[in-house]
Amino acid sequence: MQRKTLRVAGIALLAHLLAVLAWHLTVEIGQLPAFILPSPMATLATLGNSRYDWWTNTAVTAIEVFGGFLIATLLGLALALLFTWSRLGIALLMPLLITFNMIPKVALGPLVIVWMSYGIVTNIVIAFSIAFFPILLTTLRGLRETEPELLELVGALNATRWQVFTRIQLPGALPYLFSGMKVGSILAVAGAIVGEFIGSEAGLGYLMLQVQVRLDTAAMMMAVLLISAIGIVLYGLVAALEALVVVRDARIG
Amino acid sequence: MHVSAELAADPAVETAPFIKLRGVAKTFSRDGVEFKALSDASFDVRAGEFVCLVGPSGCGKSTLLRILAGLLKADAGSTVSIGGPTAPFTPGRDVGIAFQQPLLLKWRRVLENVLLPAEILGLPRRASIERARDLLDLVGLSQAERKYPYELSGGMQQRVAIARALVHDPKLVLMDEPFGALDALTRERMNVELLRIWEKSGKTIVLVTHGIGEAVFLGQRVVVLTAGPARMAADIPIELPANRTLELKTGEAFGAYSRQIYNLLGMS
After folding, report:
1. What percent of chain B is predicted at pLDDT more than 70?
2. How far is CA A117 from CA A109, A189, A198, A207, B160, in A?
3. Above 50 in pLDDT, residue B4?
4. What is the domain extent for residue A216?
5. What pairing do the DSSP bridges indicate for beta strands B172-176 and B95-98?
6. What is the pLDDT of residues B80-114, one digit of tens each?
7. Interchain CB contact of A158 with B (< 8 Å)
8. How close A157 gets to chain B, by Cα (Å)?
9. Residue B1: inside a domain
10. Range of the domain at B103
11. Cα–Cα distance between A72 and B216 in angstroms, integer?
12. Cβ of A247 under 8 Å from any chain B Cβ?
């Protein structure tokens, strides 16, 4: 088992190295100008440019992504629980939420900025709003997925609602929660960057707009790589937590 | 002491049925349309008896099982009485159920799955674990208690479900097509196993099945239900030897019982 995992990881690493190599060769053989496609080395070299303040900008974007994602997870889970407990809650709020879900959250960006001015908090809100729905909807589905016969089995023993919830529904919904969190983690990154594009004074998205004007394509590439890295770290954390909490066979997606 | 001796000596008490059903009917109404799922089921089950309910889909056998489980209420005028002076029965406590699907909790190991009913009833944990281990031993899975359900075959999962149905020491065990999802050979093997488990545990078992052969093989009595309209057609005592083996299925007596039931169901 351990050896197989190592081999898979090795192959994955190799594939990425090959992709970088292909990138390098494309630039070399194609004689592409640096403002169209800089080489991997040139991209990496921009990290040495202290004017770009990489560390701060990456930290700002990471805070927005993680903050938005965390709030989306907590609120998504809380609302899903509320909906399973309260019929009125679901009857009243669910249609509204479905309609809200149809709104392209990106389109709300300028409005949110009007309401809250721009900054980290605004971008957290945008990241949250886009990551929230998949988490809510998948968790809700998971909570409702319990086999009716299983409920009968414990119902014949007069199980309380709380027992059913803690022993059957909630653990049964965890794979769904994680599935929603994985989708949400990727969307949160997109939300934060969109927020930074629309209006901000820090962050990797902000930096991209700044260096675009100077046609520093290498720095733009580097920013994209760092943005992706934030997403990968978040996704990885979610997957690691899932591996800890959810039994292998119960996982979905 | 004196009283119990007297009770045991009283033939009326000794033969009093554990389950007594008289004119049990169940009508569902959906959107104002009434639908009779079961009518006039009347039969007795003695304590420690193994009774099979057999019949086609829609004959009301699962409905009857749910009435026995206390999950459904029979129509007014029905008599449903479970328990007697020598075999007290507490509704909401003394029922163990196994369904067609094992319905194991995927995130729990085998032992923890078996313990679920004991947890729900709030039984002392240490004693329950001991009992769960004994039951896993009884169903031949003592080596598997640390495994997860996905590591087990369908037949093994169903054994776990049977152990779970017994863990809280219920007086009445209800089974709804417990082997319906298994392949034919595994199913026959499980039938033999179940008889052994029943003999060892001494439980009263009511088992619902489509399989006529299965019903005759397992049951001390077979209650035949027919569909359209759902009603009870017969209550047949099966007088086959106590230590039943699969060989029995090839014999004359077994064939006669099966033929009788096929006839009742209008299938011959």
Report:
1. 94
2. 11, 20, 11, 19, 60
3. no
4. 54-250
5. parallel
6. 888 877 778 888 889 999 998 999 999 999 999 99
7. yes
8. 4
9. no
10. 95-169
11. 58
12. yes
